[in-house]
Design a protein that fits this description.
222 residues; 10 helices; 41% helix; binds 1,3-dihydroxyacetonephosphate; Triosephosphate isomerase; glycolysis; Triosephosphate_isomerase_arc
Length: 222
């Protein structure tokens, strides 16, 4: 197995807002360069351009709407985030849930604009459904563990291994990430040992007093 993929979701945490978004991205880039591990960040939409312009690392959007150019006030348009410098997007995060039809439309928009796609899911059946749509990644994140500091890879290992098995049956090209409560080296190690190919995480790094040190701890057992 190759190196994991780490995606850091900034949500709307103060520490990851505005200039903070750039500073955390710089820490991610430094650790990525030291380790060879790909680390992507997902700042808030208005910070995408700022982060992508100032730091050379993969920037993802936290959301994308399945719409095109035209009369869609307040929506997130794929061409706009692409031109802002995003290379990918989260779709259906637990804090930004979509209907199945909307997920499919968002994924179509991501593909149309050459954006890498991560569909977030909450259990094994939704992971299977998401994999059937053919994204680049699914990210299984049980909502009850999000922000809890209790790692999914230890509290609910079956949802990770079950997702890995389900996705392998449906479309082995789809890669599986997991998230919720991941912050330490042993959490990432456990996630990889369960067959996932990386993690999607937030509070453990974004809210850390020293995000670079927290990232170094996260990857220490890879
Ligand atoms: O929702 C998450 C990442 O998208 C997980 O959040 P935490 O890492 O804070 O549990």
């Amino acid at each position: 197995m190759g190196l994991p993929f780490i995606v850091l979701n900034y949500k709307t945490y103060l520490q990851g807002t505005g200039q903070g978004a750039v500073e955390i991205a710089k820490a991610c880039k430094a650790v990525s360069e030291e380790s060879g591990i790909e680390i992507a960040v997902a700042p808030q939409l208005p910070d995408i351009y700022r982060v992508a312009s100032e730091v050379e690392l993969p920037v993802f959007s936290q959301h994308l709407d399945g719409i095109g150019a035209g009369s869609f006030t307040g929506h997130v348009f794929g061409k706009s985030i692409k031109e802002a410098g995003a290379v990918g997007t989260l779709i259906n995060h637990s804090e930004k849930r979509l209907t199945l039809a909307e997920i499919e439309a968002s994924l179509k928009a991501a593909k149309e604009f050459g954006l890498r796609s991560i569909i977030c899911t909450n259990n094994v059946p939704t992971t299977a459904a998401a994999a059937a749509l053919g994204p680049d990644y699914v990210a299984i994140e049980p909502p009850e563990l999000i922000g809890s500091g209790i790692p999914v890879s230890k509290a609910d290992p079956e949802v990770v291994s079950g997702s890995v098995e389900a996705v392998a049956k449906i479309d082995p090209r789809v890669k599986v990430l997991c998230g919720a409560g991941i912050s330490k080296g042993e959490d990432l190690r456990a996630a990889l040992d369960l067959g996932s190919q990386g993690v999607l995480l937030a509070s453990g790094i974004v809210k850390a007093a020293d995000p670079k040190a927290a990232l170094e701890d996260l990857i220490r057992l890879v």
